[in-house]
Design brief:
The structure is a single chain. By secondary structure, the protein is an alpha/beta fold. It has 2 domains: about 170 residues, FAD/NAD(P)-binding domain; about 140 residues, 2-Layer Sandwich (D-Amino Acid Oxidase, Chain A, domain 2), CATH 3.30.9.10. Helix content is about 30%, strand content about 25%. Strands 5-6-4-14-15-16-13-17 form an 8-stranded mixed β-sheet. The chain has a 6-stranded mixed β-sheet with strand order 8-2-1-12-19-18. The longest helix is centred in the last third of the chain and has 18 residues. The chain is globular and about 65 Å long.
């Protein structure tokens, strides 16, 4: 078989790249997925879409992505349960609270609608939150959330309708490079000749990088999540805290999704779940949100954060291998910035450079002998 572009990974990032490529008229696109669509990090995430970040790069990517999420139903014909209910970010630490104030100043400079709230203001607007220990909060009404499975399938289906071809259960075994140029890929189903390969493999990004001799500084870490039985809709925003180490949102169905990070987690693909996580979440969240105390947990699962050294995406075109792109290391936030990243990669391939959003500071080269600015707004 022969095509121009091979995208490795059919999660939200790979789907977005395919969507934007076909939208721009590039039909010669193969999407290769080792399992099934939305089987990786996308299908295991909470679906938050946040523009409140500590780095300008992430703010810009997220703001651009929100514009695409707002029109996703129009673009794809699918209702992905997108809701701009806002993001309420709670701080329980004085130093972090000072950082939040600086973050808001920067975010406003970027054109984001965001404000600082006192604990009393939080309680008045969101009475179901126990504000004990809260130093301050920030709120952005244009943040929100969506159903990650539906969004992933929406982009994939429209890409296929536009001419792309999807191959599930198709694992890339080797990337064929000759004289520093991509020539094709070997899969478990045979050889595909191509000019461009895009690494959008999420948790397996490092493995795909090694196939062309590139050492991507990414590591995957398990993050666990749970879902409750439903209640009538009462919580519009997604509520998170970095110092409190939690996130929670209510789905359209009425269930509550919630999770946290684990500082003791070791790198690797591990999709087991633990009683430790369940007990910690139940105790923590029932104190912070008292209405949850008599609510039953339906199930829990785990997925991966594909982490980069600075918790910002690694997006670019290889300097050493002609035709090899990467869009990896999203550090748990690939779903929410995928529309903008997909647009940038697609424009790069079609026009020779990104036009709509600047990703020049997100290349792999930023880690070479330089200090880099770390994104701090990560659960």
């Amino acid at each position: 078989m022969k095509t121009k572009v091979v995208i490795i990974g059919a999660g939200m990032v790979g789907a977005s790249i395919a969507f934007h490529l076909t939208r721009l008229g590039e039909k010669d696109v193969f999407i290769l997925e080792k399992s099934y669509v939305s089987s990786g990090s996308t299908g295991r995430c909470a679906g938050g879409i946040r523009q409140q970040w500590s780095t300008r790069n992430n703010v810009r990517l997220a703001m651009r992505s929100v514009e695409w999420f707002k029109r996703m139903k129009e673009d794809t014909g699918m209702d992905v349960e997108y809701k701009q209910g806002g993001y309420l970010i709670l701080s329980f630490d004085e130093e972090e609270a000072e950082e939040f104030a600086e973050n808001v100043k920067m975010q406003k400079e970027e054109g984001l609608e965001v404000e600082v709230l006192t604990p009393k203001q939080v309680k008045r607007r969101f009475p179901y939150v126990n504000v004990e220990g809260v130093k301050l909060a920030t709120f952005c009404p244009t943040d929100g959330h969506a159903n990650p499975h539906l969004a992933n399938f929406a982009y994939i289906r429209r890409s296929v309708e536009n001419g792309a071809r999807l191959f599930t259960k198709t694992e890339v075994k080797e990337i064929d490079v000759s004289n520093g140029t991509v020539k094709g890929v070997w899969t478990n189903a045979g050889y595909i000749e191509c000019e461009v390969v895009i690494n959008a493999a999420g948790p397996w990004s490092k493995d795909i990088g090694e196939m062309v001799g590139i050492d991507l500084p990414t590591e995957s870490y398990r993050h666990q999540i749970l879902v409750t039985e439903p209640l009538e809709n009462m919580m519009d925003p997604m509520i998170i805290s970095f110092s409190g180490n939690f996130y929670i949102r209510q789905t359209r169905h009425g269930s509550f999704l919630m999770g946290q990070g684990d500082k003791d987690e070791r790198p690797g693909i591990n999709r087991k779940v633990t009683a430790k996580f369940l007990l910690e979440m139940v105790n923590k969240m029932s104190r912070r949100f008292p209405f949850l105390r008599n609510l039953r947990v339906i199930r829990q699962w785990s997925g991966e954060y594909n982490m980069s050294p600075d918790a910002q995406p690694i997006v670019g075109l290889s300097e050493n291998v002609l035709g090899y792109f990467y869009a990896v290391g999203f550090s748990g936030h690939g779903f929410m910035v995928a529309p903008a990243v997909g647009e940038a990669i697609a424009e790069w391939i079609v026009f020779g450079k990104p036009k709509s959003v600047d990703v020049s500071q997100l290349s792999l080269e930023r880690f070479k002998g330089k200090e880099f600015l770390k994104e701090r707004s990560v659960v």
